Structures are given as structure tokens and as C-alpha cells.
């Protein structure tokens, strides 16, 4: 595979842009209204449930009874948000989620890049066998190990601590595979040899050649790892408690505690979505190109 | 936007075979360096393997150990029962019920999702105005976590006074029992999954579509093929490998679905008649409600085997589809590309823009290459 | 261009991480113990009505901060409690235990502090004797102070009764159902009459009626000796058939318990009667509020119950041994369950106290409950508490109630079967799956 693989979709897109005025008739012409109508429908499907939740979160329970859903926000938002803050330790949960997801992300990126680099660019005995092992374990749902993990955490007395959530996901086989696939093409062997010729030892070669080259893939892997950790629910539900939750377990706690106050529950759901939503608005373009680049990279 | 800038300055022309090592290390290194060269790779891979052994493999193996015993959540290890727990689980109607629900929800989510994603990707794969906006708009649900999705859609699908039933009633249609009836509850849960993931998958498919060389489309268009014709004879075949990968990741994630059914009805853990209790939810019930770790471990292992089997089937299927389709698509691409090149050569001669030809063709993707969407979904 | 963009993303992530460190850093000092400041956590479920009492206690004890968690249902509270007991951590300093799963807690009673060490013996006489005994384990350790008990009266909607041509004032309704000799037979007969007149359902769903029927038996799912007592229990079966016949006849509104269509089923006339242990009054209050109902909706509370006195539910406050402040936790539990506070709790949540003094006070004051057509709910409950017996609760009592008979009765409610035999068989199968052979 050529070294340009990673950037292919965007480049292709951009070329299509340049080629807009192509003499060849037709394939890159501006689409008609039907396309935009369809896109409008997709947009509604994506956005409406969120908007509806927001509107409901700004009203009270009576709004649920009206046959036609209200379209505009009501005046109860801050009151509902206040109730959310009274019911769950929102900021603590947000902080925990950020901390957990960040540490896991850094860890997965670090160990995946190290191992991926070794698998892609270094020669050592047993390399191919170990790589097969990595690929084989990629499909293993390690989440099904919750029972022993739970027993271990209880023996160590780590239940209730966010460390119990972090430890089991410090590495992923997928990360190693992903980095290896990326690095194998992107670093020319000549470059490594050149660095070694200059007298660089292994680790500094890794640092000065491997890491810079790996950066784009690290960003993509980081993005997905962060999302995975951020959305995890089952495991934190088992090992954390109401006093020290993640955002996800705190949300379910809110649903449990305020089971008849639907507008408060939805206000909480929206509130918990806001951080990622803001990040999405700021960095959505990167997220999209990340997903699309990750897609073509095999 | 490209990431070209971050690449090492040496512009690579290295072929795909570059992972085969080229030359032996040169002898001018002294001993320390030799040790460095020999040992470093192991130091690089060791952290991964050590950690993975502890947090990935050990729990899996130990789950099997637990499954061989009577093992109570509170009272701990009891008698050795051999495969007794497995026999009990395989004779347990709730286990089969949970498998049925899991697979049913999986199909209800993966198939419509794939179809919708292809359609959306096709619509996006045009020369749109405000392209980024539209792409972002379909990806929007992805940033809403499953817990929030479940909370939102539990209200949308409420049996009394839910958004949908309210609308149905205003049109005089009998409301649907979204929680009490099996199929509607599966549809409701599948909708939660679909809502969150369709846009994400559409982007992945869009990437695959855009890696189909423009030239092929152009030459087909020149030959008089309309947009629909081109979609079915060019686009669809070339994104098939990507679709297979979307399905594989959907499988691994779909078979482990927990959050949505757990929160769809928080009181019953899968419905009053277990009509939407998935296998992981049953595993949770067995372990932490019925407090039977032995049987719960057996369920975990059976589910694990099932996922491996599904994975293998997928793998074999994707292999054969990828090669068969890839070959066909490749042959077609080659023919088209040859045509295109010939034509462009003629035209560039006329127009004197030969320079651009080379660049374009290097962009051509090899459709037989499997695309790999990140395996993030397994973590639902 | 790319560089700057990626850097923005990277710095965004870094910023988030830094913020996370900051946030948790701040938060971790919150649980601190500087200068005798103590944070006590407490977990309750359903509607406990403690919010104002916490504030009062914090005011009286400035060194104490209370962190409260409430869980929607007793069933979910049970799973939560046992997950945490098995994890060996995570339990609050004070944990509310429901009568239904007290039997299961008794099997691990050593995980809870013996309140005798904190003066339980001295206040023993506060409670009705059977409540205090329930909270005592076989070794004589007191592991829970009783909060409330669940004597049952009959909630009914006066407006709906009127519309169906039935009497609607409390005394006439009590007499209608048979006064002191009220039977389930009369209850179902009246239901049929109501159904014929209005075409509407009589009770919200079968499960709650069933719980009431079982809880007034001398022996429920277990014998006094702790033996499972379901299969072949003719008395239980007879009641089951009675209920099944009523439900098959359309008397059940097939409502989802704890949801009731976001409370609207209480408002829109879906059903006309509701079995009401004291604590249920708080649940109804919450449902009415969320469903947009109020006093004008027509609910009332009659001093009568089919089949005689019945006690369903009630709770205890316990202190797990994992608590870092057992003494302060025990003090809080003692204070919350003291007669004076039980009266306030009753005013907030409608439930009925378990201490004698509080019970007498409620009976005496007979404060009208506005939401229930100004019925003196406390006084009525005091009257309903007369003759209540403490039924032995086995280790799987709540599980049998919710996961064995719950689904079996739901079969009847949803109309999946009309046959009592079929539903009963399902219950027995479930019992064997979940309890006997688990």
C-alpha cells in the first residue's frame, strides 16, 4: 500500500473539488434539490431526538402529555439543572470520566505505539508469532472477564476507586494492530537505518523517527480510545458507587433517583452530552476525517 | 487538509513489501549497541503483553475456572461441579431466550443500519455545498453516550405518553406496546443502536466510496452510465469489503449489548417477561442479582465462544467476498483505467497537461484492500 | 495548516485532561476529615421523605454533612446493596433495607454493625415489638432500626366511584367493602360491578394486589420455620385463582408499576382502586404530581382492607461494618428513626411510623391529607395497623415477589393467558429456576 493511503479520502475529495469544472460531463456537478432534501431529512433524524430531549428538559412533566411535542424550550431548564446537581455529583462524575478516559487514552496510545513500532519496523525472534497472537486476541471480548476482574478488585480493595475502572483497559490488542498497520507503510526502513548510521540508539530512533511519523495515527487511536472509555457503562457500574461515579453511572443513578421526574432526567442527559457536543462542534471536522482515515487504513 | 506534513521528509516510494526486513545490522555497532538492537524490541512489546496477560487473558481463563465450581457471590467458592454449570445453562430457557433476543436485536440493528448507511454515504458522496456541515450532522448522534441515548429513547418509546405513541394516537392509530411486546421492544432497542451508529458507519462507507478512483466514474459516465447505474455497478461492489468490516465490528459489539436494554426498563432488567433481556444482561442478572458466579461464568464463556464463532464466520465470509469481489472489481477497474489513461493521454497531448495524469492515477485505491473501521463499538 | 489543527485537537485533549486532574483533585478533598468534619452517606429507595430531615440534622450537627442517594425501587436497591456487600466496599454509612429482602440480609448480618454497641437496648421500647425483633439477627445482634411499617388501607378514586354509581365518602366506602369483615370476594365483586358500569379497570395491575393478599397471610412464601412454602400451598393457590379470575375478567389496567404512564394513569381514570400501604401514599403523591393531577383528581383513602389487616413492606436503617464512622452513622440512624422524626417523615412521605409514640401521635392529630380529599391518612393507617402480624420473611422473599410472581401475573395482565393454571405453573417453573435450583 502506498504511503498516501491515510490521506486518500480527503485528497480524493479535494481533487473532486478541483475537478469540478471537469470537461467530462456530469459526475461532479452540483447535486440538485432532492439531495439536499434527503440531507435535510437525515439531519432531522440525527438532531431531532436531541432537540426534543433538550426541549423536554427545559419544561416539566406536563409537557409529556401534550399530543404534539412542544418545539421550543420552556423556562424550567435552570431549575431542572439545579435538581440534577442536587441529585448526583455531576462535576465529580465529569472529572472522573475525563480523568479515566484521559489516562486510558494516554496509556493505550503509548503502549500501542511502542509495540506497533516494534512489530512494524524492528526485527526480533518470535515477531510474527506474537503478531498473530495480537490479531487473534483482537476479537476477544475481554469485557466478558468481569467476574474474575470483579473478584480481583474486591480482593485488592480497589472497588469504589477509579483505578478499578482504568486498570482493565490500559492496553488493547486493536491499538497495537492499528499502529503496526500504520507504521509499517509510513516509515521507510531507510530512514531508520539513516538514524542508526548517525549513531542514534534504538530508543532515540523510536523517539525521533517513529513517534513523529506515528502522530496522525496516534491522534485517531486516541480519539476512539477516549470515546470507548467515555461511554463504558457495565464495568464502572459494578465497581464504582454513587459517591464516586463516572458520568455514565451518575446518569443512570439520576434516572433511578428521579424516576418520575422525566424532565429532570432528560435535562441531566443533555447536560452530560454537552461536553462532548462542544468538543464535537470545535473538533468535528477532525473527528470526521479521523473516522474516514481510520476506515481506509487496513 | 492532509497529514502529509507530518511525514518523514523522505518521500516514500517504498512498496507494500517494506515490512520485510532488508539488511542485517551492520557490524560497526559495539556490544552495547548490539544488545540494544536485540533487546529493545522486547522491551517495546513487553508492556503490552504483560498488561494484556493480566487484564485480558487471566480474567478470561479464570472465568473458566469459576465456571467449574459452585460459586456464590457472597459465600465464595463451593464444590467442584465440572461442566455442571454449562449443562445447566444450556438447559436454561432464559439463556436461550437471551440469545434469541440478542441475535434478533442484532439483526434489527445491523441490517437496516447498513442499508441506511450506504444510502446516506451515497448521498454524501457528491459534490455538496457545506460538505462538512452535512457530515457533522449525520455524525451528531455518535457523541451522545449509550446511557444518554437509552434515557432519551426510553421516553420516545414510552408506552403511555411516549413521543411516538402520542403521535400515533393523534393520527388515530393504536399505540404500540414498545416494552411489553417482544418485537416492538427489539425494534425500540435496535433504534437506539441504529440512531447512534448509522452516521458513523455512513462516514466509513463514504471513505470507501471516495477511494474509488474518480476516473472510473468518469469513464463510465462517458459511456453513458447514469448515476444509479454507476452506483450499482461501480460503487457498491468496491465498498463491499468495507461493509463486511462494518458488519464484523457490529457483530462483536451487538452480541455484547447491555446498556440499552438495561436502561430501557430500569425496574425489570430486560422486561417483565424478559422479552428484551440480552445475554450480557442475563449474565449480569445471574452474577449480581441471583448471585450465582458459577453459572454466570458459564454464560460468559458460552457467549465468548459464540462471538468467536461469529467472528470466524465473518472472517471466512469477508475473505471470500473480498477476494471474489475484489478480483472482479479490480478487473473492471483495470479496464476502465486503461481506457481512461488512453483517453487522457490523447487529451493531454492536445491540452498539454500531462502532468496531472500521473498524480491522479496514484490516488487510485485498490478495492480489494479491506477497510478497517476502528473496533470501538465492542465497548458498548 | 494541518499542524495547527491537529495541535488544537491535541491541546484540547490535554486541556481536558488537565481539567480532569483539577476537578478530581478538588473533589477528593471534599470527602475530607479535617477537624472532625464528617461526611455521612446514606442510601434509601422509593419515597423516603428524608430530604428536610437531612437538612435539620446537618443544622443541629455542624460537623456532619449528609450525602444522600436514593434508588427508584426496593428491588434495585437490593441488587445495589448486595453488589456492594460482595465488593466489600461502596456501601453507604447508612443503608436502608426493605422488609422483603431483610431475610437475605440476615444471612450476611455480620456485615452490619450491632447497634447494641451504640445503645439500641436503651431505645428498644420505642418500636412496636415485632418491628424491633425483625431487625434482630438470630445471634441477638440488632442490625437495623425500623423506619416505617406498611399497614394497608384502600385508596380509591371518589369521582370515579360516583360516576359508577357507587358511594364515594370514606365511611360508606368502608362499609361497602365490608368494614371489619371486608373480603377479597367482595372486592372482586365490586370490581365486576364497576367494570360493568364503566367499562374501566378496577386496579392498576395484578402484582400489587397479589403482594397485599400474600402479606396478610400468617405464613407467606415461607413457613415460620423458614421452609419454602409455595408449591402445594392451597391457601396461596386459592387466592391466586381469585385474582386470576378478576384479571381475566378485565379488572386489571395492566399498568407498569413504578411508572404508571409517567403518573398519568392515576389522573386519567385508568383504574379506580389502589392497594395502599402507608409508604405507597408518597409514591402516589409523586405520580400524581408528575402526571399533572392534584387533590381534584379525586383520590381518597378508606379505613378498610379486603381480607383484614395487612402489612406490606416497611424498612430499616442499618450501618455496614465498612462504614468509617459507625458511631456517627448509628447516631444518624437512631435520630432518623426516633418518634419525632418518624412523624415528620410521615408528613413528608405519607408512610406510617414503626415507633409506638409516633403512631399514637398520628392517630391523635388526624391531620387531613389534602391530596387525598383531606382524609386523615395517619389516623386511618393507625387504625389499619391494628391486628397486623409480622410474617416471617425468608431469604428469597422479595425475589419471589418480584421475579417469580411478578412475571407470572404479568402474563394475565397482558392477556397472554387467561388461565390461572397456566400462570401458576409459570410461577412454579420460575420458582424452581430462580430459587430452588439456582
TrEMBL record, chain A:
Entry membrane topology: Multi-pass membrane protein
Amino-acid biosynthesis listed as a keyword: no
Residues spanning the membrane: 33-51, 98-120, 132-152, 158-178, 259-283
Main location: membrane
Ranges of residues in domain ABC transmembrane type-1: 94-283
Gene3D superfamilies referenced in this protein's UniProt entry, alphabetically: MetI-like
InterPro entries the record matches: MetI-like (IPR000515), MetI-like_sf (IPR035906)
Family designation: Belongs to the binding-protein-dependent transport system permease family.
The protein's name in its UniProt record: Carbohydrate ABC transporter permease
TrEMBL record, chain B:
Protein topology in the membrane: Multi-pass membrane protein
Protein's cellular compartments: Cell membrane
Record carries keyword Hydrolase: no
Major localization listed first in the record, in broad terms: membrane
Keywords linked to the UniProt accession: Cell membrane, Membrane, Transmembrane, Transmembrane helix, Transport
TM region positions: 42-65, 99-124, 136-157, 187-208, 239-258, 298-317
Record protein name field: Sugar ABC transporter permease
Automatic annotation (TrEMBL), chain C:
Protein's recorded name: Carbohydrate ABC transporter substrate-binding protein
Signal peptide feature range: 1-29
Coiled coil: none
Keyword Signal: yes
Domain of life: Bacteria
InterPro entries cross-referenced by the UniProt entry: Bact_solute-bd_prot1 (IPR050490), SBP (IPR006059)
A Pfam family this chain is assigned to: SBP_bac_8
Protein's UniProt keywords contain Signal: yes
Keywords annotated in UniProt: Signal
Amino acid at each position: 500500500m502506498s504511503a498516501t493511503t491515510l490521506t486518500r479520502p480527503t485528497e480524493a475529495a479535494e481533487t473532486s473539488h478541483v475537478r469540478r469544472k471537469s470537461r467530462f460531463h456530469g459526475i461532479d456537478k452540483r447535486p440538485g434539490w432532492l439531495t439536499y432534501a434527503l440531507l435535510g431529512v437525515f439531519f432531522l433524524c440525527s438532531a431531532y431526538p436531541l432537540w426534543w430531549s433538550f426541549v423536554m428538559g427545559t419544561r416539566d412533566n406536563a409537557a409529556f402529555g401534550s399530543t404534539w411535542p412542544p418545539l421550543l424550550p420552556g423556562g424550567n431548564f435552570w431549575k431542572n439543572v439545579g435538581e440534577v446537581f442536587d441529585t448526583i455529583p455531576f462535576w465529580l462524575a465529569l472529572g472522573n470520566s475525563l480523568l479515566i478516559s484521559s489516562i486510558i487514552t494516554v496509556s493505550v496510545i503509548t503502549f500501542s505505539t511502542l509495540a506497533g513500532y516494534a512489530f512494524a519496523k524492528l526485527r526480533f525472534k518470535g515477531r510474527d508469532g506474537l503478531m498473530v497472537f495480537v490479531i487473534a486476541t483482537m476479537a476477544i471480548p475481554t469485557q466478558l472477564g468481569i467476574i474474575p476482574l470483579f473478584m480481583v478488585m474486591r480482593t485488592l480493595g480497589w472497588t469504589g476507586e477509579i483505578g478499578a475502572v482504568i486498570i482493565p483497559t490500559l492496553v488493547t490488542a486493536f491499538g497495537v494492530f492499528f499502529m503496526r498497520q500504520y507504521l509499517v507503510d509510513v516509515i521507510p526502513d531507510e530512514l531508520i537505518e539513516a538514524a542508526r548510521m548517525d549513531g542514534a540508539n534504538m530508543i532515540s530512533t523510536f523517539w525521533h523517527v517513529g513517534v513523529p511519523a506515528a502522530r496522525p495515527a496516534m491522534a485517531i487511536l486516541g480519539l476512539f480510545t477516549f470515546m470507548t472509555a467515555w461511554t463504558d457503562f457495565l464495568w464502572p457500574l459494578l465497581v464504582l458507587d454513587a459517591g464516586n461515579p463516572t458520568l455514565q453511572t451518575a446518569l443512570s443513578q439520576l434516572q433511578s433517583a428521579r424516576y418520575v421526574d422525566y424532565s429532570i432526567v432528560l435535562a441531566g442527559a443533555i447536560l452530560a452530552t454537552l461536553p462532548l457536543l462542544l468538543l464535537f462542534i470545535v473538533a468535528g471536522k477532525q473527528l470526521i476525517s479521523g473516522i474516514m482515515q481510520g476506515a481506509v487504513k487496513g | 487538509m492532509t497529514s502529509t506534513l507530518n511525514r518523514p521528509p523522505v518521500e516514500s516510494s517504498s512498496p507494500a513489501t517494506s515490512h520485510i526486513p532488508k539488511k542485517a545490522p551492520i557490524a560497526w555497532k559495539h556490544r552495547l549497541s548490539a544488545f540494544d538492537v536485540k533487546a529493545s524490541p522486547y522491551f517495546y512489546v513487553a508492556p503490552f503483553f504483560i498488561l494484556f496477560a493480566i487484564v485480558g487473558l487471566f480474567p478470561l481463563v479464570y472465568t473458566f475456572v469459576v465456571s467449574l465450581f459452585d460459586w456464590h457471590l457472597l459465600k465464595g467458592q463451593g464444590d467442584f461441579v465440572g461442566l455442571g454449570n454449562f449443562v445447566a445453562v444450556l438447559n436454561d430457557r432464559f439463556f436461550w431466550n437471551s440469545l434469541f433476543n440478542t441475535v434478533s436485536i442484532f439483526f434489527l440493528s445491523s441490517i437496516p443500519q447498513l442499508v441506511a448507511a450506504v444510502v446516506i454515504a451515497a448521498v454524501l458522496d457528491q459534490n455538496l455545498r457545506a460538505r462538512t456541515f452535512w457530515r457533522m450532522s449525520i455524525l451528531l448522534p455518535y457523541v451522545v453516550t449509550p446511557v444518554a441515548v437509552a434515557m432519551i429513547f426510553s421516553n420516545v418509546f414510552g408506552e403511555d405518553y411516549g413521543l411516538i405513541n402520542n403521535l400515533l394516537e393523534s393520527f388515530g392509530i393504536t399505540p404500540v406496546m414498545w416494552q411489553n411486546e417482544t418485537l416492538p421492544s427489539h425494534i425500540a432497542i435496535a433504534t437506539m443502536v441504529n440512531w447512534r451508529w448509522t452516521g458513523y458507519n455512513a462516514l466509513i462507507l463514504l471513505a470507501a466510496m471516495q477511494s474509488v478512483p474518480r476516473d472510473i466514474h468518469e469513464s463510465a459516465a462517458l459511456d453513458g452510465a447514469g448515476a444509479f447505474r454507476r452506483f450499482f455497478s461501480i460503487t457498491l461492489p468496491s465498498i463491499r469489503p468495507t461493509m463486511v468490516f462494518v458488519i464484523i465490528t457490529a457483530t462483536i459489539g451487538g452480541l455484547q449489548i447491555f446498556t440499552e436494554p438495561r436502561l430501557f426498563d430500569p425496574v425489570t432488567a430486560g422486561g417483565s417477561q424478559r422479552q428484551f433481556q440480552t445475554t450480557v444482561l442475563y449474565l449480569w442478572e445471574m452474577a449480581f442479582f441471583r448471585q450465582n458466579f458459577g453459572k454466570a461464568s458459564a454464560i460468559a464463556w458460552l457467549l465468548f465462544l459464540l462471538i468467536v464463532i461469529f467472528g470466524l464466520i465473518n472472517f471466512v465470509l469477508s475473505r471470500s467476498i473480498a477476494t471474489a469481489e475484489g478480483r472482479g472489481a479490480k478487473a473492471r477497474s483495470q479496464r476502465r483505467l486503461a481506457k481512461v489513461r488512453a483517453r487522457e493521454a490523447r487529451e493531454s497531448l492536445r491540452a498539454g497537461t500531462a502532468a496531472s495524469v500521473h498524480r491522479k492515477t496514484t490516488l487510485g485505491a485498490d478495492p480489494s484492500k479491506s477497510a478497517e473501521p476502528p473496533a470501538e463499538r465492542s465497548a458498548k | 495548516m494541518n499542524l495547527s489543527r491537529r495541535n488544537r485537537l491535541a491541546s484540547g485533549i490535554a486541556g481536558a485532561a488537565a481539567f480532569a486532574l483539577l476537578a478530581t483533585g478538588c473533589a477528593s478533598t471534599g470527602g475530607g476529615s479535617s477537624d472532625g468534619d464528617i461526611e455521612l452517606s446514606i442510601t434509601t429507595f422509593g419515597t423516603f421523605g428524608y430530604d428536610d430531615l437531612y437538612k435539620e440534622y446537618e443544622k443541629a450537627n455542624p460537623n456532619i454533612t449528609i450525602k444522600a442517594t436514593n434508588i427508584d425501587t426496593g428491588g434495585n436497591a437490593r441488587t445495589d446493596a448486595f453488589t456492594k456487600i460482595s465488593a466489600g466496599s461502596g456501601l453507604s454509612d447508612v443503608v436502608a433495607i426493605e422488609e422483603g429482602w431483610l431475610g437475605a440480609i440476615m444471612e450476611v448480618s455480620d456485615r452490619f454493625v450491632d447497634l447494641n454497641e451504640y445503645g439500641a437496648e436503651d431505645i428498644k421500647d420505642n418500636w412496636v415489638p415485632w418491628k424491633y425483633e425483625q431487625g434482630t439477627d438470630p445471634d441477638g445482634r440488632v442490625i437495623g432500626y425500623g423506619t416505617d411499617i406498611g399497614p394497608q388501607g384502600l385508596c380509591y378514586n371518589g369521582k370515579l366511584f360516583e360516576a359508577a354509581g357507587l358511594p364515594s365518602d370514606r365511611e360508606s366506602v368502608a362499609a361497602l367493602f365490608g368494614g371489619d369483615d371486608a373480603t377479597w370476594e367482595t372486592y372482586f365483586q365490586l370490581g365486576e360491578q364497576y367494570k360493568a358500569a364503566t367499562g374501566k379497570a378496577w386496579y392498576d395491575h395484578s402484582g400489587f394486589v397479589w403482594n397485599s393478599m400474600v402479606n396478610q397471610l400468617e405464613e407467606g412464601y415461607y413457613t415460620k420455620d423458614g421452609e419454602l412454602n409455595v408449591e402445594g400451598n392451597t391457601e396461596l393457590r386459592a387466592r391466586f385463582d381469585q385474582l386470576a379470575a378478576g384479571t381475566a375478567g378485565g379488572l386489571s389496567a395492566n399498568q407498569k408499576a413504578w411508572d404508571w404512564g409517567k403518573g398519568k394513569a392515576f389522573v386519567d381514570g385508568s383504574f379506580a382502586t389502589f392497594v395502599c400501604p402507608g409508604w405507597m401514599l408518597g409514591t402516589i403523591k409523586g405520580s400524581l404530581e408528575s402526571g399533572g393531577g392534584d387533590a381534584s383528581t379525586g383520590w381518597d383513602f378508606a379505613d378498610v382492607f379486603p381480607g383484614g389487616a395487612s402489612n406490606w413492606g416497611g424498612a430499616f436503617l442499618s450501618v455496614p461494618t465498612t462504614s468509617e464512622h459507625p458511631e456517627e452513622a448509628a447516631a444518624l440512624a437512631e435520630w432518623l428513626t426516633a418518634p419525632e422524626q418518624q412523624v415528620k417523615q410521615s408528613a413528608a412521605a405519607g408512610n406510617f411510623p414503626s415507633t409506638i409514640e409516633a403512631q399514637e401521635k398520628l392517630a391523635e392529630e388526624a391531620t387531613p391529607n389534602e391530596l387525598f380529599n383531606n382524609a386523615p391518612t395517619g389516623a386511618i393507617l393507625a387504625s389499619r395497623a391494628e391486628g397486623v402480624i409480622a410474617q416471617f420473611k425468608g431469604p428469597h422473599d422479595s425475589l419471589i415477589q418480584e421475579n417469580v410472581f411478578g412475571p407470572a401475573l404479568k402474563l394475565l395482565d397482558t392477556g397472554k393467558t387467561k388461565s390461572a393454571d397456566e400462570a401458576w405453573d409459570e410461577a412454579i417453573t420460575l420458582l424452581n429456576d430462580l430459587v430452588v435450583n439456582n
